[in-house]
Amino acid sequence: MKSFVGLIFVIFALTGVALGQVRTDAAEANKIAERFQKPEHLNLLQGAVWTVTHDYSDIKKMSTAVESVFKFLDAFQKHQSGDPAPLEQIGGVSAFKAELSKFMVDEDQALRAFAAVLVGITGDKGMYPQLVKLIETPTDAKDQMMRYDRGRALQALGLLGAIDQKLLIARFIRSESQYDRSGAIWALTTIDAKEFAKDIAGLLDRADLEYDDDTSPIYFLIETGTAVNFKSSLVKAMRNRFNSEPSIAAMYALAHIDAKEHAKDIAFFLDHEFRKADAAKALAILGASQYGPRIAALLDDESGLVRSAAALSLGILNEKQHSNRISRQLNGPESSVQAFAATALFLLGAEDHLPRAWPFLKIGYANKSFVTESSFSPIVATRFDILTKRLVAALDSFNQQQEPE
Question: CA of 340: how far to CAs of 74, 154, 165, 252, 372, in Å?
Answer without folding.
Answer: 42, 41, 47, 20, 9
